[in-house]
């Protein structure tokens, strides 16, 4: 199997193209400063992962900014830290400010010459529009949790995307799903028979960070440490 076998790259955005862990860790600082117990960055990200996943299951139709406000409230309660509604909503509003990874823009500009580029994201359209400015390309399609009424890893997200790509003339074999999260993206891609490329942004860090651990047996077809490595692999294939 080769990268050049595919016609469509579908991307997770937050975690793969946008450095959501940096954004989350920064946005949690006011809450962390109120804690009487010192907590590491990884502790904070793991708390976020647990509460975000639980909230997404409980309220799949909730806009992501409001969902993040609920997550912030839940984390504060777990840490026994008092925070007001304004602080909860301020945390939810930061999603549009989370930074892109340094390699994202150049990689997407290169890949745009060879593939249809599609986003499948757990955010909502207004927050993606703010983050989109940092990505540097126009995507051929953007599918969000707001459109679908569910959050990844719910299979409805991937079925929604596949239905729309089929309507534009693409089969599953045309598509390579590119993502960091084994839990949110690769496991459901596996379940629906999609090929996938793992952008292993946490390769030197233990744990699963801002996502829950993946289920047993999750797999992928390609593995890269960065978007730059994916681009170099594609260039090498073209060189023959």
Descriptive labels:
DNA polymerase, domain 1, 2 domains, 47% helix, 240 residues, Rossmann fold, alpha/beta, six-stranded parallel β-sheet
Provide an overview of this structure.
The protein has helices spanning 20-27, 29-34, 41-58, 64-79, 85-93, 104-111, 125-132, 145-148, 155-167, 182-191, 227-239; strands spanning 8-11, 116-121, 141-144, 175-179, 195-199, 222-224. It is α/β, with parallel strands linked by helices and 240 residues long. The protein has two domains: 3-20 and 100-239, HAD superfamily/HAD-like (Rossmann fold), CATH 3.40.50; 21-97, DNA polymerase, domain 1. The chain is globular, with a radius of gyration of 18 Å.
Secondary-structure topology with pairs:
Elements (H helix, E strand, L loop, with lengths): L7 E4 L8 H8 L1 H6 L6 H18 L5 H16 L5 H9 L10 H8 L4 E6 L3 H8 L8 E4 H4 L6 H13 L7 E5 L2 H10 L3 E5 L22 E3 L2 H13 L1
Parallel strand pairs: 1-2, 1-4, 2-3, 4-5, 5-6
Which stretches are poorly predicted, pLDDT < 50 over at least 5 residues?
A: none
C-alpha Rg (nearest Å): 18 Å
Tell me the helix content: 40-55%
Distance between the termini: 14 Å
Strand content: 5-15%
The number of helical elements comes to: 11
Order of the strands making up the biggest sheet = 3-2-1-4-5-6
Second CATH tier, the architecture of the largest domain: 3-Layer(aba) Sandwich
CATH superfamily of the largest domain: HAD superfamily/HAD-like
Average of per-residue pLDDT values: 95
For the record, the CATH class of the largest domain is: Alpha Beta
Q: What would you call the quaternary organization?
A: single chain
The shape is globular
Class based on secondary structure composition and strand pairing: alpha/beta
Q: Tell me the number of strands.
A: 6
The run of helices and strands is: EHHHHHHEHEHHEHEEH
User: Mind describing the biggest β-sheet?
Assistant: 6 strands, parallel
Query: What is the number of independent domains?
Result: 2
């Amino acid at each position: 199997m080769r990268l050049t076998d595919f016609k469509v790259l579908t991307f997770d955005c937050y975690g793969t193209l946008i450095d959501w862990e940096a954004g989350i860790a920064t946005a949690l600082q006011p809450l962390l400063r109120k804690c009487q117990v010192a907590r590491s960055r990884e502790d904070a990200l793991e708390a976020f992962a647990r509460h975000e996943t639980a909230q997404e299951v409980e309220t799949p139709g909730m806009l992501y900014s409001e969902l993040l406000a609920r997550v912030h409230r839940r984390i504060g309660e777990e840490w026994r830290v008092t925070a007001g509604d304004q602080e909860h909503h301020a945390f939810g509003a930061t999603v549009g400010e989370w930074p892109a990874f340094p390699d994202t823009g150049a990689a997407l500009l290169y890949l745009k010459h060879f593939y249809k580029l599609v986003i499948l994201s757990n955010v909502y359209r207004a927050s993606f529009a703010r983050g989109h400015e940092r990505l540097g390309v126009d995507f051929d399609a953007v599918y969000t949790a707001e459109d679908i009424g569910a959050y990844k890893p719910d299979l409805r997200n991937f079925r929604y995307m596949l239905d729309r790509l089929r309507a534009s003339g693409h089969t599953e074999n045309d598509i390579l799903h590119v993502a960091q999260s084994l839990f949110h993206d690769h496991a459901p891609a596996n379940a629906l028979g999609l090929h996938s490329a793992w952008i292993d942004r946490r390769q030197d860090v233990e744990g699963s960070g801002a996502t829950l651990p993946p289920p047993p047996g999750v797999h992928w077809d390609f593995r890269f440490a960065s978007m730059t490595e994916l681009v170099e692999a594609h260039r090498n294939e073209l060189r023959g």
